[in-house]
């Protein structure tokens, strides 16, 4: 398939190692990734678990990778938030700003 949509951009790398990224929502569909509670290494937090569309992995290169911890969405901390709340925040607006670790 051909993909010509803009995925997003790295906006800033903080001194603590976290990254601020902006992702653009496609016109028809989800953001392009799933979120999971915890991962193999950590039992808490929200993590990018896998891509959910047919985009090649390199489209997210330099922006976001599977396993990145999502700390904030649009300035709201999500560390102990239920997945439903995380997906609600991701579903608001045409763009979202994430703070990742």
Attribute tags:
single chain; 101 residues; Pdz3 Domain; seven-stranded antiparallel beta sheet; 36% strand; PDZ; PAR6_homolog; PDZ_sf; PDZ domain-containing protein
Q: Mean pLDDT, rounded to whole units?
A: 79
Summed up, the helix count is 1
N-end to C-end Cα span: 31 Å
CATH topology: Pdz3 Domain
Give the low-pLDDT segments: none
Report the strand count. Answer: 7
Strand residues, percent: 35-45%
Major sheet: 7 strands, antiparallel
Q: Structural class, from helix and strand content?
A: mainly beta
CATH superfamily: PDZ domain
CATH class: Mainly Beta
* Helix proportion range: under 10%
Radius of gyration over C-alpha positions, nearest whole angstrom: 13 Å
From N to C, what is the helix and strand string?
EEEEEEHE
Structure commentary:
This protein has 101 residues and is mostly beta strands. It has one domain (8-100): Pdz3 Domain (Roll), CATH 2.30.42. The protein contains one helix and seven strands. Strands 1, 2, 3, 4, 5, 6 and 7 form a seven-stranded antiparallel sheet that branches. The longest helix has 8 residues, at 83-90. The termini are far apart.
């Amino acid at each position: 398939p051909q993909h010509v949509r803009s995925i997003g951009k790295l906006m800033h790398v903080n001194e603590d190692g976290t990254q601020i990224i902006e992702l653009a929502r496609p016109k028809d569909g989800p953001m392009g990734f799933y979120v999971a509670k915890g991962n193999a290494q950590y039992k808490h937090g929200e993590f990018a678990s896998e891509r959910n569309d047919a985009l090649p992995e390199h489209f997210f290169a330099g922006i976001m990778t599977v396993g990145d911890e999502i700390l904030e969405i649009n300035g709201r901390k999500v560390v102990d938030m239920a997945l439903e709340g995380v997906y609600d925040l991701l579903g608001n607006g045409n763009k979202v700003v994430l703070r990742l670790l």
